[in-house]
Design a protein that fits this description.
307 residues, mainly beta, Jelly Rolls, 2 domains, five-stranded antiparallel beta sheet, 1 helix, 1% helix, kinase, Malectin-like domain-containing protein, serine/threonine-protein kinase
């Protein structure tokens, strides 16, 4: 299948009126790969893929469970094990309700029993779509994709490539996205060549590249209804003196049918960057510029974030 890189800009005007409850996905699969026991992360239980319940998802003729004998004291237990595949192998998940789903892959390389996971090279496919091609990593990595699941089954295939002869994975998440998480119409790409509108965005496979909290501090998955981490925008600002952080103490109220805590947590909407007009050295004409590959922008008169 041909892969197309899609960049889009979506502007969502936020009306802050009513409140929202915590999110409970219809499909919610969390796997602790290569472990004999379940483990928790951010109050979520990841089921062992070696247990009776977890092994139901695994389809592998030859796979190996590995445990890190010298894990970092600060790393979560979820990253102390991994499942290694020496042949193409898959995980299959029953989809109760078709629609947009989030799929996350956790990779935490270590060395054990003759395997150095940092030398692994492999591809990862979801329902035949290539998510990662000739992938390898020497550091802990979390990859997130937004996928439209239209069938009763979602299959994740791991396929070793090259001379390494194996691939690995530490944990998998597959869960339903909130309603209208990806809006099919209204997203526009603004460039020097003009304005291009994208339609049927939910039919595309999207990858999260950056999740930025503009004007705010780092937000961890513990305080996010979709278990996401948001990082500050400082490192992406071209000219830091052109921007000035502003914040409000008022928590947002959400309008039915509009934004919700599933799009971004309260703290994201409570901070922003404003043009620093107090800096006389910049002159009268300037703007605030960030450099990154971005997926979605949300803003209000005060509140802004980049996803």
């Amino acid at each position: 299948m041909e892969t197309k890189t899609l960049h889009f800009l979506s502007l969502i005007i936020i009306s802050l009126i009513s409140s929202s409850t915590s999110y409970s996905p219809t499909d919610n699969y969390l796997l602790n790969c290569g472990s004999a026991t379940n483990t928790s992360l951010y109050n979520r239980v990841f089921v062992s893929d070696a247990s009776r319940a977890g092994s139901f998802f695994l389809s592998a003729d030859r796979s190996i469970s590995l445990a890190d004998q010298n894990p970092s004291p600060n790393s979560p237990a979820l990253y102390h094990t991994a499942r290694v595949f020496t042949t193409p192998s898959s995980y299959k998940f029953n989809i109760k309700k078709n629609g947009t789903h989030l799929v996350r892959f956790h990779f935490s390389p270590f060395a054990a029993r003759g395997f150095n996971l940092s030398t692994a090279k492999f591809s990862v496919l979801v329902n035949g779509n290539v998510m990662l091609n000739d992938f390898s990593t020497q550091v802990v990595v979390l990859k997130e994709y937004i996928i439209k699941a239209n069938d009763k089954m979602l299959e994740i295939l791991l396929r070793p490539v090259g001379e390494s002869g194996f691939g690995f994975i530490s944990a998998i998440e597959v869960f339903s996205a909130p309603k209208d998480f990806i809006v099919d119409y209204g997203a526009k790409l603004v460039s020097a060549d003009g304005i291009e509108e994208y339609q049927n965005l939910s039919l595309h496979v999207l990858e999260t590249i950056h999740r930025i909290n503009v004007g705010g501090s780092k937000l961890t998955a513990f305080n996010d209804t979709l278990w996401r981490t948001w990082i500050p925008d400082d490192d992406f600002l071209v000219l830091k003196t052109a921007a000035k952080r502003v914040a409000t103490t008022h928590t947002p109220n959400y309008q039915s049918g509009g934004a919700s805590p599933e799009i971004a947590p309260d703290n994201v909407y409570m901070t922003a960057q404003q043009m620093n007009k107090d800096n006389a050295t910049l002159g009268a004409r300037f703007n605030i510029t960030w450099i990154f590959q971005w997926v979605r922008v949300m803003f209000d008169t005060w509140f802004a974030c980049i996803l």
